[in-house]
Amino acid sequence: MDYLAEGLAQAVGMILAFDREFAAIVGVSLRVAGTSTVLATAVGVPAGIAVAESRFRGRQAVITLLHTLMSLPTVLVGLLVYSFISRRGPLGDLGLLYTQSAMVAGQVILAFPIIAGLVLASVASLDRRVRATAAALGADRGQSFRTLLREARFGILAAVVAGFGRVFAEVGISMMLGGNIRCYTRNITTAIALETSKGEFALGIALGLVLLAVALAVNVMLGLLRRREA
User: Fold this and answer.
1) Averaged over 217-223, what is the pLDDT?
2) Residues with Cβ < 8 Å from 11, sequence gap 6 or more?
3) CA distance 106 to 80
4) How far does the chain reach from its first CA to its final CA, in angstroms?
5) What is the Cα–Cα distance from 29 to 189, expressed in whole angstroms?
6) What is the pLDDT of residue 145?
């Protein structure tokens, strides 16, 4: 177990030094995961609300599909996107393979059903009298909708946090679509996989600690927001 203690000590030193390569790896993770989460939120939140508030034929099938897609394997998403953007794929001429854009595309597909499904569950669990009461008090359709959003805000925030956590910690999509290119598509998870395979545990442990720290920070902020609004 000595190598673990030694690796942990070296990892702390790397985090404190925050050298250029370490910073580049963390930056790629934050940039790609952040962009993916924003795009997935822009589509997933309205989709979740629409399914929760609408009544249409096949609605239950759509809900079941969303719930199923919430557990999509990352390698399956990577394979799907790869088949479209590889040289032999229909979008091969765009040159997207092994770029951050390809990673974002795959992570949006991964995060969308998670955000949409959790928003759907949050809105569907609200008291149906919320909008009815708002309408009875003279609120128009837009005001009633804003009231609904206000009541479901913490559920929506939790959905966004869950989506971010899923894409920030995934490795399959990043490896297959990003190619683990140094200072360009190498993020925290792919760097951990690479360094561990080389026996470089210190960098892997340091990046793992950053991964946990970011996840903890996001959830702490969500908890503070809830406490502040309580």
Assistant:
1) 82
2) 202, 203, 205, 206, 209
3) 9
4) 46
5) 8
6) 72
In tens, the pLDDT along 169-218 reads: 999 999 999 999 998 999 999 999 988 888 777 778 888 888 888 888 88
Residues contacting 108, CB < 8 A, separation 6+: 36, 39, 40, 43
In the predicted model, is pLDDT for residue 49 greater than 80? yes
Q: What is the pLDDT of residue 132?
A: 64
**Please, which residues have CB within 8 angstroms of residue 132's CB and are 6 or more apart in sequence?**
none
Which CATH fold would you assign to the domain 26-229?
Answer: MetI-like fold (1.10.3720)
* Rounded alpha-carbon distances, angstroms, from residue 18 to 12, 22, 24, 108: 10, 6, 10, 29
What's the CA gap between 230 and 225, in Å, rounded? Answer: 9
Rounded Cα gap, residues 60 and 72, in angstroms: 19
The CA distance from 165 to 214, in Å, is 9
